[in-house]
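Moderator note: this is an archived Q&A kept for reference. The question asked for a predicted structure of one protein chain; the sequence and the answer are reproduced below.
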Amino acid sequence: MMAKSSQHAIPTPFHKGELEIQERLGMREKVHNYAPRFIRDHLPDEHCAFYKQLPYLIVGSADDEGRPWASMLVGRPGFISCPNPKTLKVSGRPLPGDPLTETLKDGAQLGFLGIDFQTRRRNRMNGKIAKRSDDGFQIAVDQAFGNCPQYIQTRVLTLNETDPAPETLPPLERNSAIGDEARMAIENADTFFIASMFSEDPNDGRHGVDVSHRGGRPGFVKIVDDRTLIFPDFAGNSHFNTLGNIAVHPKAGLLFPDFKTGDMLYVTGGAKIIWEGAEMEAFKGAKRLVRITVDEVIRAEKSLPLRWDFRDFSPSLKRTGSWGKAAEAMATARGSSPLS
């Protein structure tokens, strides 16, 4: 599944969008000094052991319109297993109202994120559905790799009701804009998940769906209007999986879970990378911004049967700012007050 970069003649696990971003930022050669050794075409034993102990799994998928969605699957620890290093098995069904209900199809490309909020450990994987059954599905692994713990807020699981009644549909709202409840969820969020995709060749293991974690201070996602969101992109592992996908397929799906109430907010829409400008320069720690133009919003009340207690913010956030501080900096540069 490896291809060769025509410029550097280095084996690469990245597709053209990821390579484009790495090249733009002068990171391509640095990333290729280590990444090909860590991005595997199978699940290492330690990854299998990690997934098996999780009661939840973040999933990225795409609908028939090519719109990415970020979702969460829930089950008792052990509902995720590895029959062999090339296969991940999930025994569970989507939560009520989750778009994954419609996107789980034979051969579908999916992205996965296993994340432990208490230890800040996380691993990523992507692949294709090889087999489906009434109680779950199996994934043929394309790529698997670990992720650094940056920007993950520490939380402790306090309620784990992993057997929600599937016939019980929670109150569900579908809109083409951000309503009042959705606005509150986004403004209070310190964590969300983002799904993206690029799939010109389904037989190329570098192509497919990806899902990733984003963390920041509460309110780090700015609501510009009822159809527009902007959030800062901080320094990460320099793979640029999300940005690389957006560069060649400018769409993304966001999931905002409410860790206290179990409410789930799903957003999908167009995505654009903002490389320069006053806002980006004023937001401390931002390397670039991402703008989401909302296409659809789904809000499911109390559909997540898990609850977490907040413990502390990631130490990495000490190097980042807020939209309020950014507004102050911009106002100072203009010689006016933040509200003028």
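Archived answer notes: The first helix runs from residue 16 to 24.
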